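Re: the request from the purification team.
They wanted to know what the chain is likely to look like in 3D before they choose a buffer screen. I agreed to run a prediction and write the result into the notebook, where they can find it.
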Amino acid sequence: MTDEEIMHQCEIYDNYIYTLDDDPDVIEHYGTPRHSGRYPWGSGDNPFQRSRDFMSNVTELKEKGMTDREIWESMGLSSTQFRAKKSLAANEIKKFNVMYAQKLKDKGMSNVAIAKRMETNESTVRGWLKDSGNIRKDELGTTMNMLEDQVKTKGMIDVGAGVEKHLGISKVRLDTAVAALEEKGYTRHKIQVANVSGNGTQKTTVTVLAPPGTEWKYVIQNKDKIHNIDDVASTDGGSTYTKLHAPEQISGKRVYIRYAEDGGVDKDGTLELRRGVKDLDLGSSSYAQVRVAVDGKYYMKGMAFYSDSVPDGYDIVYNTNKKRGTPDEKVYKPQSDDPINPFGVAIKPGGQRGALNIMNEEGDWNKWSRSLASQMLAKQPVDLAKKQLKLTKDIKDSQFQEIMELTNPIVKKHELKQFADACDKDAVELKAAAMPRQGTKVLLPFPSMKENQIYAPTLENGEEVVLIRYPHGGRFEIPRLIVNNKNAEAKKIMGNAIDAVGIHPKVAEQLSGADFDGDTVVCIPTKGHNIKTQKPLEALKNFDPKLEYPGVTEKSPWKKGSLKEHIEMGMASNLITDMTLKGASDDEIARAVRHSMVIIDTGKHNLDYKRSYEENGIAALKKRYMGHVDPETGKYSTSVSTLLSRASGQAHVEKRDPTGRYEIDPETGEKIYAKGRLKYNKETGKSEYTLWNEPYVSKKTGKIITPSTKSTQMFEAKDARSLMSGGFGKGLPMEEVYADYANHMKALGNRARKEYISVKEPTLNKEARSKYSEEVESLKKQLDTAKKNAPLERQAQLIASSMVESAKLANPDMTDSEIKKLKGLKIKEAREAVGASKYRVKITDKEWEAIQAGAVSKTTLEEILQNADEDRVKELAMPKAKAGMTPSKISLANTLLANGFTLAEVADRVGVSVSALNNNDSVKVKAGDKA
């Protein structure tokens, strides 16, 4: 309740007292104020009456001898909810007493008279009057106001365990404030987020406070919009909150804008920094993707690097494709209303350095992508796709064999389950293994380079490479370049850059209009690989989507990186894939590519994508190259027509448990999903399983709705060949190659699940528990230490998750292995930023002996595995005779070496040293193999 509402209740209570003075019989209706608690507050809906009734009810039940537990269970509340509600009610009642006492004092009544009127003693009244001046400063009210402001500003916020530590208040204070806001209509939801540090099977529970009316479904679909309370903190337990600092603003007078006519167009999207300027220090990096706030209302975005060509009197050269005379508001980007992050993007933890707000810097791109997406490989010769997909299958087979060599049953089950889920995902995503020395590189412009050259210090001079940028339209978007690491300009700026390449600005035009504000490419040495390229399409030359299709409204149809953009881009990419496979002409392909380029820039530059759809005849192209009769519905469709585009296409299946709960068919290894959910039954007080099979009538539309779950066509297909364009088993040669790969992954996943259920779990051995009591105690203490970090860890997971999702959108061809490495990098950064130090349980040989002997329970061991180093666990679980180079590792090493990978790449993939490869007689190292 607000203070004004409480004062209103004081007036009602005053009237009630005077009425009693005139007519004592009124008490029969209202009840006695100090015993029944039924005060005449008017409507029973007001929160103050509920507080009085609640506290009176609790008092009555306690007088009957009930314990707190019995009371909260009788009310259908959890212990946390009960304590929060009790604290809230006590706070409301105290507020009323303090404000009512002050109201009577203001009327001239003495403390004794007030005590008599309020049926208490005079010393209590003195205390209430003393508190009156500070009533607005109470911690609960201030914390509620702070949380309310946070929700109004950010939409949804994390209020789970550990947030209180960063705010500087108690957990009870936070929980009570959240409960109070729930009473006001705000919603609280619990969701699960896949751990960035795992493979997606481990979850972190996040408690979210959201605006009134926000549904759980919306929270699930917009996890990226859940914000931390990272801009306020309290030093006095919640009485006051202090705002944290906003990014530094630089004066526009320090910025030299290099316009298009002056050469800015060649380096569009870059910031050249004067060396030695304190607030523009890149630290140990040579380049970084940054945001820089200007004059409190604008900001610059792009790749920043040091330069010796900054004019006197300036500290930054901002290169733009805008012409002279363009107003500042068109050259710069406008800052948002968020004072802490006015850029609308995730700044890396620890990335706010002086005036530089860093998103990514040198080294961050190195692990982004080491795979080949089907949208690229499917447009290459069939033999090349077959070769890379075979390599992918061989790698996966060796991983399975390695898991089967593990000895501990719990560890084995843990690994088999994760592996099976990964196989299911691989079958849908259709990503192939990377080529030797392939890597993701961020682009930097050097007009002094020749148009057929590239500065790539991780490769050798004279090597030939190709560059792939996603989304990928076709071979005509692949530049073929020669490495030149002697370019003086590039060498001075980039040095021995590990994850950046320098190119002539003209090359970027062929890469579907790439610019230099952080765009990345996959760089592949061509030696030994039949990668086909062709000249850029004439119809795409000089095509600028920003000039051809400017927006007709002030606001973009969607935001950059949004779900809407992802869907639109997916449809455009699927169309190009199907057209390419079915032999569309260059002119037709150009029309589809032009539209895809418009889609790419619509969110960023507010383009008219609808006019592009019409003028490029996209509907006609879809009809010609995607039109087909759906074999399931019998209806004509122009959505997706080939296996490669249908794989990730939506499929609606009978409603499943949203937690993903399933059983495993012991005969086939397939998942059998639970078609329903666990729901709390207030009458029985238990969670009961409720089926979702029954259709219902929508309250909004009046239509009959059959509950369903969204999935993908490939995930649901028993046999990938059912998705071929000509019907079951009848398709194009490239479809056959990918169908074989998908079926292999499906079979491998099912095989892993069958092995999973066949592994017998050990029982707790009490004798071993006694014998290894010291080891068991050590493991438990380590586990407790790991758990104490959970609140900070959850915040780090949310931060890292957002950064990883951004990277995945920019690099759709990343494999699980690369994503895992990227997650490791980002979670490390996020932990450092929030002060989380993820403690890994360090299992000694003796402690592992205790685990093997059954001294640790299944539940405890599973928790230990979630908090231990995965590689160390695998090492311990591997038979001693096979430790190091196991048969599966030897097989994988030989496969990779036969496909042209270097010894260093093989050693990194297999998890051993280069010397271990050289010294193992079973590993087929050739004299010419490079380290």
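For the purification team: DSSP finds 35 helices and 33 strands in the chain.
Please add any questions underneath this entry.
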